[in-house]
Amino acid sequence: MALYVLLTALLLPLQCIGLLLFAKGFFPYKPVFHGYAPIEPDAPPAVFDSMIFMLVDALRSDFVFSNQSTMEFTQSLILSGTAIPFTARAAPPTVTLPRIKGLTTGSVPNFLDAVLNIAESDDSSSLKNQDSWLAQVKRRQMQTGRLVMFGDDTWLKLFPGMFERSDGTSSFFVSDFTEVDNNVTRHLDAELAATDWDVMILHYLGVDHIGHKGGPDSPFMPQKLKEMDDIIQRLYTHVSNKLETDGTSTLLVLCGDHGMNELGNHGGSSAGETAAALVFASPLLAKLEADNRASAEGFGNDYEYYSVIEQSDVVPTISGLLGNPFPMNNIGLFIPQFLGFWKESEQLNLLKQNAEQMYRILKATFAELSVPVTTTNLDALMKGSDVERIHGLWHTIQSPDFIDSKDSRSTLYSFLETGRNLLARTSSNYDIPSMLIGILIIAWIAVTLYRRAVTSTSSDFVTKAAFSVILLGHGLAMFGSSLVEEEQYFWYWAASAWFIVQFSVAARYKSQRAAVCWLALSAVMFAVRHYHHTGQKFAGSFDIASFLALDFSTSLLWLLIIAEHLLIFKNLQFYVFTETGSIAGFVCSFTPVASLFSFKLSMALEAGEAVPRYLIALVPVSIGAEGLNKRAQAAFLAFGICLIFHIVSSVWNLKKDAFKFIRGVFHIVELLLVLESSTVNIPIFLLYGAAHSILRRYASYSTSTSMSIVLTGLIWQQVSFFASGNSNSLASLDLSNAYNGISGFSTVLVGILLFISNWAGPIYFTLSTVVQLSIFQTRHSSSSSSAYSSIEELVTTDYLSVMHAFHAHSLLAVMLACLILRSHLFIWTVFSPKLLYTAAWFILQQGVVDTFGGLALSIIAEAL
Predict the structure, then answer these.
(1) What is the DSSP letter of 247?
(2) What is the pLDDT of residues 427-471, one digit of tens each?
(3) First to last CA, the chain
(4) Sheet with 199-204, side-by-side order of all strands
(5) pTM for the model
(6) Rounded to an integer, what distance in angstroms lies between the CA atom of residue 86 and that of residue 305?
């Protein structure tokens, strides 16, 4: 045992090194041009003197354009011709930081920006020394040009020192729907009266927060969108008045950085997540001819309203309308609907400058563009690959008589569209040697750990064979994009197959009780797998959680929630506070459960969730964000006191009981897991509890083996992760409980709560497995032939060897898939997110929960 602990202490850090080396090669920052684009002497004149850039986080296209939208004033501007609408397609990952990069530089951000998006304190993604339309405004109008910003403090991290005035707010405190937006709006009176800024940026967060808490159909959403519409009316009125009074033209831009899926989350590539609303508004837009306007054809299909453009196209369009050069790293193209502001020759000059700026990036990316083009091979190039076609188009554009040709505009747009598409899908600058070294390290460790797992002291051949099949099957599944997106089905099928195997074993040994256990467990599994339909294919389809969320099911949902709280109360009273006396034990058990229920009820009411009338009386008035924090802190405090009391009382108790100690910790931690779970997910703990009770009985039967207990625990960890609504998409990462009890951003605390919230099921079954192993060890401890003398040895030898081997092979398979499929169409939307999730499983679930948590629990229990 000591040897294995030493081996673990050496291999875990080595695995981290292998993972970091692979990540270094797989997630390099894309090379960028430094410096600033030159000011073109023949650039068309500016159309607008200043701009108000209003970004509403997660503003999906239908929120503005659908018939059900409450943004009536914005729609009236579109109908009057003073606003031009678009659906701006956002490139994955659809999270704020990379989307702001795309909206300001016109480039395609690196996928690693999705990770940096969570670390608010990180400054490695700063755009301070990169070209952007903000930098061009600052540079060209150095004497008078100023920028002000109010809202999401991601802008302050990306553009340090850029703003004359600013007021940032944290984007991750998703429980707050009002203060984050009021903090922006309160500056409007002073700023609209001021004349010392050229660009005002407003980043509103309330729509995104409502989406995370209650989804796009939250009862708070129409009211919030009406609030945004009122602000648009206020801003447009100012723009119109300025034009009439002093002739100052101001462009008002309303946009979303991304959309949201049907659950209110984002980060993936579904239609709802990538479809962001975009509206340009100004009285000057009424001068454009009708045929230059966005078409309303195909209204609303896949959230595609009016004309669909790429979000990167916003950057050159803003630059052109403000009379500034296109940023150096821009891959967007000027939106053709706005060309009507200039005469024909100026339009062609503008598009040619757009093409020249993009060609600099293309030439630096593709060495073959340096080869001279002759008239003899021009036709072949135009019919060849995209790179060859770019080569031919550029040669045509450079010809002396190009500007005078009748198809010059269509040729320029053909070049721009081909170049944009080519650059958007260009692979990162992979560091293959680093990736290979990382893979070799992980491969050696995976083989070592597998040998350890199958040669452990347990002699259960059937389980070892099943474990080997699962390793192989799961590893092969990681090479299919659809299998990664729908990984939950692999585990549902693996669970069913494993239950059949165990039922057969029980029948072979004529153990009727064990056979009944596996039949009952199959019934529980059926309910668990239908609790949430996750993945991509059936995400958002009707399931148990959807049923419980319906208005007429509100009473049933809260009855189940109450039942789960009562179950925790019973277990605390029986396993934690049994020595304090009947009355004191009742009070000590009731207090933390009451504190937990009070917080969950208050949080549901503040989020606008349906709550039965008989419970609303318990929280008669709104307590606000501060009140929620205090109730969450009280629940956390109660959890901490319970845990400390249980440890101290177990140490001082003369009647040492390792099983009772482990089970007490298990139920105390369940208190924390429920605290960090969404309202609709609390009833699933009743199903987890049923599975745990069945497995406890199985652990006490003679047909059980330690390896079968561990493999069953591994399967339930994976099943519970997906059954709770998670998937391998960043869009399913639930932030709604990551700020419980926290009034400000803390990378460590928010990270811990985020992990607990999303990995509540696997944490539950880690502790459940340790409880089962303690029962198994107790049953065999009286046997002289027992292979295990203590629960500590059992956890170390069988449990950790299986868990470590599985996660090492899972990590190896995903790394190999990312290396081999690095040019795959879905490398950044499917395989890269899976790599991040696998890293989280390896570092946090295996490293922290399984290894340190499981070992600590067994060591303390054995020391009693």
Answers:
(1) -
(2) 567 889 999 999 999 999 999 999 988 887 566 788 999 999 999
(3) 19
(4) 165-169, 147-152, 199-204, 50-56, 250-255, 275-281, 83-89, 307-310
(5) 0.85
(6) 7
